[in-house]
Amino acid sequence: MNIFVVFTLCLAILTTVGAGASFTFEPRRLVNGLLLNIALACDILAIGTLVIASDNHTLVGIGLAGFIIVVVIIGFFVTLHLVWLIWNAVIVWRRESHSLANMLTLLIAIALIAIDLFGFVGERFLPNFIYETISSIFAVCILYVLITLWNFLTVLFAYNLRRPIHDQDYLIVLGAGLIDGHKVSRLLGARIDRAISYYRRQAGKGRPLPRIIFSGGQGKDEQVSEAAAMRDYAVNLGIPMSATLLEDKSRTTLENMLFSAKIINQQTHGAPYRAQFCTNNYHLFRAGLFAKQAGLNANGLGAHTALYFLPNATIREYAAIFLMNKKRHAIVLGLCMLPSLFIFIDGLVNAL
């Protein structure tokens, strides 16, 4: 076994153990996405070098075929990304409200078309150094968004894969808007169903049952609080009223966490507890960040979301988390755009 193979194996082990330890110790951290991706890249590199070093033609053939399949899939997605974005936008437009949040895939498609048009027009009508400056800025921004989006998707996926032991003291169901001011929507119902399923599984294992905290205040256009509507929904499905607690003051996810933590601390008198919160799978990680911010010792259980709704909802979550860290992103992007500034200054000096 040559030195390079040993090096890649050691690197893969170190990065995998490091990413695993970081995620296990505190899964509610964005950096886990980066660490997991680094570990995955190192693992693929190590497997590739092992396959090549084995000199086994069958293994090399399988590895090459797998690589080609991945490249073809990526190429297919890149080639048809505009078609997919517009197709998803049409479906969401037909099935959901026509809000800005539900038009994100359409807006992204329009932005990408505009960038393509700029490339066609700008190269012909703008001075070369201005065109190259703007093009490099677009390239940096798109690359930065793709990298940070991929890291977010990785940590979101990993966070959804968590399967906590059925020994919880509290389950917190996060509220969402009500239909006609009093009815639980399908999206909100999925969150409650997730908590009920977990509650029943824990009951089936013969362990002490958790209390379910329904968290959500009453909006201006709502006849009852989200918490009360959720509790009624759960009670109608067989959850005992005595197993429920209401948190009916919150207006945001952060308040969901803060006020639920207050209820739990009142119940436990500051003693240690085990808790999970329930929300839709796309919202899970951002809710985890808010739980951490609120000092709530809880991780999340993801509820099913309709597949057509996921792209818009996930992009919205990414944008929200991006804005939560806007200062850091602004600094990094500013540094990444320094070469564009040099291109502009050099071109301006030469033009003068």
UniProtKB/TrEMBL annotation:
Membrane-crossing residue ranges in chain numbering: 6-25, 34-53, 59-87, 99-122, 134-159, 330-349
Origin species: Lacticaseibacillus pabuli
Q: Which UniProt keywords apply?
A: Membrane, Transmembrane, Transmembrane helix
Protein name (database record): YdcF family protein
In Pfam terms, one family for this protein is DUF218
UniProt cross-references to CDD domains, sorted A to Z: YdcF-like
Where does the record place the DUF218 domain? 169-318
